[in-house]
Each structure stands twice: as structure tokens, then as C-alpha cells.
Design brief:
about 80% helix
């Protein structure tokens, strides 16, 4: 069991407050970009686009750190699970970013869109990025489900500290701001990677769902229903599994022949890795 003699250190609470301010300040700057576009500047400049991507990535990384460490110190498995969820978003961001860059290079080579070979390359690049993202989400989500389900079965639940509720609602507010921004821009600035852009938009929507689940679970735990913290973590893991399965099934038929041959071994390996990760994390907590 984790020893929590006095709850999170005051310095950590200060870090959480400053992290929240940084993200909200960044969202304010991004909102300014959106307003400029509605006033007539229909396409973001390269600098504005890079700033937008940087702010989004920084907010996600800070939230991973904030939710993860707070969850560990405040004894909230739901917040830790949501931090891991955010970590998969950061990993998916780099996958999507690499895929989009490759697609942009292919499009610059074939500006008139006349080469079937290059068009096929663009499709394959997006399919592979989506498939790998699905495997990652499925594997991590299953590990989260197994870990927290066993905590519930073994009746090893503990009441989280109040600071975990505060951090959960702050994270939810930040993700709501990011989602609204993406809704407003409608991804007009990304035209070379439609599939990966759609996946990114979908992941941001799922962040809102999982963030809401965590906030509700922690609120219930504060009201005396302590099991709701673990239950929320199981739901977050289930969301990741569902997202992963959806992406895997969407791309399965479009994979290259070489990747199709290794489809079943990859799935089986992912399940075994998830079981191992769940068992290892459970042994640390118990």
C-alpha cells in the first residue's frame, strides 16, 4: 500500500496551479487565432499553426505529469489511468505528425495528383499510422482494465485525497477548451492527412468523455463511494480498448499483405503484453 502521511506536498499543489494557468493562457492565445480566422484570415500561417500545435502538445504533456503525479500522491487510480490515457494521446500525436509530414512530402512531389503510386503511398502511410495507434490504445487500455478490475475484486480500494478531484476538473476544463478550439478550426489547416486528422479529432472527443468519467468517479469517492475511483479507471481503460479495436478493425482489410500475415501474432502479443503490464503494476500497488 502507498503511504500518504500528509497528502500531496504544498510545492506540488503550487505546480498544479501554475500548470493550469499556463494551459489556460495558451488556450486564450489560440482563441485569438480562431477569431482572426473568422474575421477573414481563412488559412493559418505556418507560424500560427506551429504555435497551435506546440501549445496543444505542451498542455497535454503538462497534464500527463500533473494527473500522473497527483494520482500517485493522492491515491487515485482513476487519475493515474487518465494520465496514461493522455500519454497515449501524446504518443499518437507524434505518430500522426510523422504520418502527416510524410503525406505532405508525397503531395509536394505530385502536386497535380496524377501519380497513382504516390496516392497509394499516402493511403498506406495513414493506414499504417492508424493501425499502430489502434494497437497502442488497445494494449494500454487492456492493461488499465486488468489492473483496476483486480483491485476491485481483491477489495483493495482506498479513498483518494481531495486534491485529486480539483486536478480532475482542471484537466477536464483544459481538454474542453482544446476540443472547442479544434471544433472551431475544423482542421482546415490539415489537408494532406484526412484519416489521421479525423483520428486526432476523435481522440480529443474521447478525452472529454474519459475526463468526465474520472471527475464523476472521484466526486463519488469523495462522497463515500470509494469504489467509484477504481470503477472510473476501469471505464477509462475500456474506452481505450474500444478506441483501439475500432481503429484496428477499420484498417485491417487495407493493410499490406506483409502486415496481414502478422496480424494475429501482433494481436496475441498485444494481449500478452497487456496482461504482463497489468500484473507488474498490480504487484507494485499491492
Amino acid at each position: 500500500m502507498r503511504d500518504r502521511p500528509g497528502g500531496p506536498h504544498p510545492l506540488w499543489q503550487t505546480f498544479v496551479a501554475r500548470t493550469s494557468w499556463t494551459c489556460f493562457h495558451g488556450l486564450e492565445a489560440r482563441a485569438t487565432v480562431v477569431i482572426k480566422r473568422y474575421l477573414g484570415d481563412d488559412i493559418m500561417s505556418k507560424k500560427e499553426r506551429n504555435n497551435s500545435i506546440s501549445i496543444s502538445l505542451i498542455c497535454n504533456i503538462l497534464l500527463v505529469i500533473g494527473k500522473g503525479i497527483t494520482g500517485l500522491l493522492a491515491n487515485s487510480n482513476a487519475l493515474v489511468a487518465d494520465a496514461v490515457h493522455s500519454m497515449t494521446d501524446v504518443s499518437a500525436f507524434f505518430m500522426n505528425y510523422r504520418a502527416c509530414n510524410d503525406c505532405e512530402i508525397y503531395n509536394r512531389v505530385d502536386r497535380k495528383k496524377t501519380s497513382k503510386k504516390i496516392s497509394q503511398k499516402i493511403v498506406e502511410t495513414e493506414i499504417h499510422a492508424t493501425f499502430y495507434m489502434g494497437i497502442l490504445l488497445f494494449m494500454v487500455g487492456l492493461a488499465i482494465c486488468l489492473h483496476n478490475f483486480m483491485i476491485l475484486v481483491l477489495d483493495k480500494v482506498e479513498k483518494p485525497d481531495f486534491i485529486s478531484v480539483v486536478v480532475a476538473f482542471v484537466a477536464l476544463a483544459v481538454y474542453a477548451g482544446l476540443y472547442k478550439y479544434l471544433e472551431a478550426t475544423d482542421n482546415h489547416n490539415v489537408k494532406d492527412c484526412v484519416l489521421t486528422s479525423r483520428n486526432t479529432h476523435w481522440q480529443n472527443k474521447m478525452n472529454l468523455v474519459s475526463g468526465t468519467v474520472v471527475a464523476i468517479g472521484l466526486t463519488g469517492a469523495m462522497l463515500g463511494f470509494i469504489f467509484m475511483d477504481e470503477l472510473a479507471a476501469v471505464v477509462v481503460g475500456s474506452i481505450l480498448v474500444g478506441m483501439g479495436v475500432k481503429l484496428i478493425m477499420e484498417t485491417r482489410e487495407h493493410l499490406s499483405p506483409a502486415m496481414k500475415r502478422y496480424f494475429k501474432p501482433v494481436i496475441i502479443s498485444s494481449i500478452l503484453i497487456s496482461i504482463a503490464l497489468g500484473a507488474i503494476s498490480l504487484s507494485f500497488q499491492l
